[in-house]
Amino acid sequence: MVPLSYYLVLSAILFACGVAGFLIKRNIITIFLSIELMLNGVNLSFVAFAAQLNKLEGHIFVFFVMVVAAAEAAVGLAIIIAVFRTRETLNVDRVNLLRL
Amino acid sequence: MSMHLWIIPLLPLTGAAINGLLGKRFPKVLVNTIALGFTAAAFAMALWVAAQFAGLSPDQIPHIERYATWLSAGQFSAEYGIYLDQLSLVMLLIVTGVGFLIHVYSVGYMAHEGGYYRYFAYLNIFMFFMLTLVLADNYLLMFVGWEGVGLASYLLIGFWFLKKSAADAGKKAFITNRVGDFGFLIALFLLIKHFGTLQYDSLWKLVSQHPVESAGAGLLTAIGLLMLVGATGKSAQIPLYVWLPDAMEGPTPVSALIHAATMVTAGVYMVARSSPIFDRAPDARLAVAVIGTLTAIFAASIGIVQTDIKKVLAYSTISQLGYMFMACGVADYIGGIFHLMTHAFFKGLLFLAAGSIIHGLGGEQDMRHMGGLRKYLPYTFWSMTVATFAIAGLPPFAGFFSKDRILWSAWSSGNHIIWLIGVITAGMTSFYMFRLWFLTFFGEYRGPNPETAEHGHDADAIHDAHDAHATGDSHGHGAPHESPWVMVVPLMILALLSFVGGWVGVPHSLHGSDHFDAFLAPVFQAAAAGTTASEPAPENGVDSTELIFSGISVGLAALGLLLAWYLYYKRPELPARMAKAAGGLYTLVLDKYKVDELYGAVIIQPLIALSTNVFWKGIDLGLIDRAVDDGAEGALETSDAMRHMQSGNIRSYAGWVAVGATAVIAFMVWRGLR
Questions:
Q1: Searching chain B, which residue's CA lies closest to the CA of residue A94?
Q2: B59: burial class by Cβ within 10 Å (0-12, 13-18, 19+)?
Q3: Which of A19, A31, A98 lies closest to B648 in CB terms?
Q4: Is the ipTM of this complex over 0.90?
Q5: pTM metric for this prediction
Q6: Which of A21, A68, B99, B162 fits a 20 to 30 Å CA distance from B141?
């Protein structure tokens, strides 16, 4: 059996990749994907713990996260389309109407 | 049997409330009617009470009426109640009677002034507080009246508040009184601490168990001395007398009512009321006598050289109050109250007559510009003549009996030095009063030419309205003129009282029956039980001595008259030469011994310096303002720094979220590791 720590290290790597992409990338869709990556990193640690501890709650949480992620994808993509229609760009540095 | 005495003080308060709150829109007649009506009602009720009082049996006196508990804290409680005995009855009649006459007079005197309703509202509120003061059945309620009359005095001295000197005089009176009130308050605290009550009746019971304190310190001595401090403030004695001469900035009827007849005698009333305490603290009582005696001669000497008619009367008032303190100090409280009463009559009259002169001359107060007024103001002249003879102590006028009684008490109690100073002061009193009389009414009119002169008025905007009163009257302010009837009639009534007022106290040496003494004696006999003051004065064989002493003081008064006649009527050029010869001494007295300057240098300037440099610039600006300013500035700077986090750039927000999350995780890891 694969030890728990392997799963957790992979989960941390996935999450860190997500954070890095979230901070570095300028394209909204890439940022969006980075968020999904972070969520899935977290999901991985949930199921890892659930399997290790023989508990159901971890699995249930993963379903919740998936549902939220799906909803987020629907709303987020809609927002991205709306932003593209008005600003004609997907570069977040140019979506700065709130700038001081 | 309740006499519903609470109504008496409430009557003028009602008048004050109506006039003060609504009077601005009232016509003058209505303001008059309200102010005079409520005061007259108070006087009428006082007379009714006096009649009822005569029907009480001796064991029903003092007549105490308690209406409610005013406040209670722990063991201590103060009642709202009224204490009626012979002493407060005399005060009640003086305050309401003289007060009413002065209200009547004011109708004429203030007829052309602005703020008419305000004036009468203040005057009525003064009556309310003064009645509270004299009728209270405990010291705390008395203190309410005590402070209230101070407030009324402040408001009325500064009545023409647009004039800086008047506003300043009001403040000076109030602040000087605060110094005295401080002493009075501490005396009350000591009473509460050691006797647990301020109600007169229960307090006297406790105090009477106290032995007489001899030779120096003791509780009652301390209380007595602190009360004396309070009394010196209110009754303008050394060292706190300085406010009274300045108080002459107020309208003249106010000077008559508050600063001659009633309020300034509150200190004397308080000392007389506290006679059980003073009788058991001979040292404190002696201090009262010494302060009174010194004040009497000190103020009289200043009065001799003053040229402002009201200033002469002000110093005369201080001097006469000194006599009252002298009387209380030698345990002759009845003499003090007797002089208080006659003084209320003749000094009230003197001020009102002076007001009539000032009114008739369109605001002139300098006696050097008067003279020969006898033919212009005949009624004022005759009433003032009576008052002058009364204050000079010439028989059979009122002042003779009261002043003589005080001097005799001083001698017979063994205080011969006090008697000597008192009798010299009597001569000086006679001199400066007849000086005023001759300068004002005799010789030639020295004012500006009546035909052409533009009258210099009292020089302020409000008061100048007075000048415009040519519109309503047939006369402009050309020639001096007699005052209207509404002013003259109170003068006449007071003149009558100044003439006969002393007859209630004709001493036995003059084959009188001294009703006044017999009437008031129970108040002080009960209080003095068990002290030296209760020993009956040796009656027989001293009558002839007393007569000789009367002769001495009358002789000195006559001498004062003659001297004034010689210097200011026969040879009017002499005083100027004498003043020149006296040189520096004359200037010193003219400058009132530079006491104001001394207080300014010793107390006021250091206080201002301390307040400016330490309290204002050090604590207020340096500490309090600085803390507030720096706090605000710090918030501003911090916010300015934080503002830049809100860049509007999504990725910078993301960065902050990451930083925040890292911080939280770091914190949790750090906590988890511990």
A1: B649
A2: exposed
A3: A98
A4: no
A5: 0.80
A6: B99
